[in-house]
Design goal:
By secondary structure, the protein is an alpha/beta fold. The protein folds into three domains: 33-352, ABC transporter type 1, transmembrane domain (ABC transporter transmembrane region fold); 361-449 and 530-618, Rossmann fold, CATH 3.40.50; 457-528, P-loop containing nucleotide triphosphate hydrolases (Rossmann fold, 3-Layer(aba) Sandwich). 62% of the residues lie in helices and 10% in strands. The protein has 19 helices and ten strands. It has helices at 33-45, 48-79, 85-139, 142-147, 150-192, 195-242, 244-249, 253-305, 311-328, 331-352, 413-420, 443-448, 464-469, 477-486, 490-495, 513-527, 543-557, 592-598, 601-613, and strands spanning 374-384, 387-397, 402-406, 428-433, 436-437, 450-453, 531-535, 561-566, 577-582, 585-590. The strands form two sheets. A six-stranded mixed beta sheet has the order 6-7-8-3-9-10, sandwiched between helices. α17 (543-557) links the parallel β7 (531-535) and β8 (561-566). α14 (477-486) packs across α16 (513-527) and α16 (513-527) runs parallel beside α17. The chain is elongated and about 120 Å long.
Length: 618
């Protein structure tokens, strides 16, 4: 059993650089431990009456625990040979033994009551913090989520939640009870005996605590190193598993195994260092305990020889020392766990305090939804200041009409959809829906008004029904089936053994590209928004699937304000207006026929794509 150290965490998965993943070091904070505790306190204070009750039960448990050595003293003194020994044996020991059993039971009872009463506070605080982090992460901008390391971030949240439990458990169930017991013991020793007992105990404990804290602080670096390896490794592990097919495509199983072995070796070295320092800490603690016990027993035995103390006093002093040093024997692990819990909790608070790049303006109202005309008015935007993406872009999508945006890769087409969804705010100009600036209304109402069929449809690892119903949570099976029929995927679903309960796999990998796109269309149809975006919705499909899905897309766009972002021009010939975007600037606009007549950029793209689509006969 590890007394003052810790059980080693599981070995990490492969990692090439423990300090940095993809240039993103672990989140750190300059917040002090006391500041972290103050940050946690409001979550616990919601359960203040439970906290008070738990403290009351804890004091009761310690009073009963301290009463046990006192009772043992009386029992031993009673058993000391006396002339009326026979009568004493018949009456006094039985009552003392019953009292001893009652005290022991009371100690356990009060302890269990304390945990029972405080469990709701602990779990409630952990739940509320975790939920706030989860909501805050969803409220953060797309920029944050594009840069995040998912595995490491989820591990930080997991540790932070566990840190709430550990911090409360270690402080309320270990540190505070030990302090209460120490005060009670020192008071009894000082009142009943001479002050030397108090001085020996106090000095010994001071040296013991100083030694433990100093060595544990020094040892913390090894645990931090292992934690960093673990967090970074989690990111690598998640990334590797999500890219399982890529590993197989390039036959890199052995490469991944070698990376894993390298990380295991680094972990092994850190673990050995940690164990050496742990052994040193435990040895030093035991030496201090042994010396202090010898001094206390020497003083007590001298008192018995000199007649100042009884054998019962000797037993009581010895029992007090054992009861004090048993919890103190775990001080190293308790202190280390508290420090680590504070660090883990602080990392989660850092996530909670990350600024939301996109926020609702004060007093913002919901989008009125009176009409669904979309306007981009002199919009300029750049992800990075030195690399402008859109430059003074202006166009209108009248309500119920379709506008298509075409152009080469990197011209800024998909950025238009991200800005309309308000994943980012424009740096110049404005975007309006029904004449209302989307920055002045709530983000929720804007996104509620828009549906999207993306180029790469990512599905939840759940059933087909769940993924379609995600368009409008709470939809009935009949509504889901109606949307699936409109998207022409119903027949495929019912032909599978499990029907609408068929699992789609992680990211929907059990479905083909065409099937995933139909699920995305059904999901959007079920949402039934007034504005629809098709962001290269068929570019990842072959020609046959593309032609098959075109009719479903037209059905989804019927009577809706539609923005079509496309690379293949054959998908936009029926649009009311086509915009040609190049290097963030609209260089041409008009209908398909108008643009062909002009023989400009669009006509060149059309001719080139027709040539590419012509089969080569060998």
């Amino acid at each position: 059993m590890r007394r003052s150290g810790e059980a080693l965490p599981p070995p990490p998965i492969a990692v090439s650089d423990p300090s940095n993943v993809a240039g993103h070091p672990p989140a750190r904070s300059d917040r002090s431990d006391w500041a972290t505790l103050r940050r946690l306190f409001p979550y616990l204070w919601e359960y203040k009456w439970r906290v008070m009750a738990a403290l009351t039960f804890m004091i009761g448990a310690k009073v009963a625990n301290v009463g046990v050595p006192v009772l043992l003293k009386n029992l031993v003194d009673t058993m000391t040979p006396k002339p009326d020994m026979a009568q004493a044996l018949l009456i006094v020991p039985i009552s003392l033994l019953l009292a001893y059993g009652l005290l022991r039971f009371s100690t356990s009872l009060f302890g269990e009551l304390r945990e029972l009463v405080f469990a709701k506070a602990t779990e409630g605080a952990a739940r509320r913090i975790s939920l706030e982090v989860f909501r805050h992460l969803h409220a953060l901008s797309l920029r944050f989520h594009l840069e995040r390391q998912t595995g490491g971030m989820t591990r930080d949240i997991e540790r932070g939640t566990r840190g709430v439990h550990s911090l409360i458990s270690m402080s309320l169930y270990s540190i505070v009870p030990t302090i209460i017991e120490l005060v009670l013991v020192l008071s009894i020793l000082g009142i009943k005996f001479d002050s030397l007992f108090v001085w020996i105990t106090g000095v010994a404990l001071l040296i013991y605590i100083s030694f433990t804290v100093t060595v544990t602080e020094w040892r913390t670096q090894f645990r931090k190193q292992m934690n960093e390896l673990d967090s970074v490794a989690q990111s690598r592990a998640v990334d590797s598993l999500l890219n399982y097919e890529t590993v197989k495509y390039f036959n890199n199983e052995e490469f991944e195994a070698k990376r894993y072995d390298a990380s295991l070796d680094r972990y092994r070295k850190a673990a050995i260092k940690s164990q050496r320092t742990l052994s040193m800490l435990n040895t030093g603690q035991q030496m201090l305990i042994a010396v202090s016990l010898v001094l206390m027993l020497w003083r007590a035995t001298s008192g018995v020889v000199e007649g100042r103390m009884t054998l019962g006093d000797l037993v009581m002093v010895n029992a007090f020392m054992i009861q004090l040093y048993i919890p103190l024997n775990f001080l190293g692990v308790i202190y280390r766990e508290i420090k680590q819990s504070l660090t883990d909790l602080d990392k989660m608070f850092v996530l909670m305090e990350k600024d939301r790049e996109i926020q609702d303006s004060p007093g913002s109202r919901a989008l009125s939804g009176r009409q669904a005309t979309v306007r981009f008015e002199d919009v300029s935007f750049a992800y990075e200041p030195e690399r402008p993406i859109l430059k003074h872009v202006s166009f209108e999508i009248p309500a119920g009409k379709t506008v298509a945006v075409v152009g080469p890769s990197g011209s800024g087409k998909s950025t238009l959809a991200r800005l309309l969804y308000r994943f980012y705010d424009v740096q110049q100009g404005r975007i309006t829906i029904g004449g209302e600036d989307i920055r002045e209304v709530t983000q929720s109402s804007v996104r509620q008004a828009i549906g999207i069929v993306p180029q790469d449809t990512v599905l939840f690892n759940d059933s087909v029904e769940y993924n379609i119903a995600y368009g409008r949570p709470g939809s009935t099976r009949e509504e889901v089936e109606a949307a699936a029929k409109a998207a022409r995927i119903h027949d495929f679903i019912v032909a599978t053994p499990k029907g609408y309960d068929t699992p789609v796999g992680e990211r929907g990998l059990k479905l083909s590209g065409g099937e995933k796109q139909r699920v995305a269309i059904a999901r959007t149809l079920l949402k039934n928004p007034p504005i629809v975006i098709f962001d290269e919705a068929t570019s990842a499909l072959d020609s046959a699937n593309e032609r098959a899905i075109q009719s479903e897309l037209k059905s989804a766009a019927q009577n809706k304000t539609t923005l079509v972002i496309a690379h293949r021009l054959s998908t936009v010939v029926d649009a009311h207006e086509i915009l040609v975007l190049e290097s963030g600037v609209i260089v041409e606009r008009g209908t398909h026929a108008d643009l062909l007549e002009r023989k400009g950029k669009y006509a060149q793209m059309w001719t080139l794509q027709k040539i590419e689509a012509t089969p080569v006969v060998l």
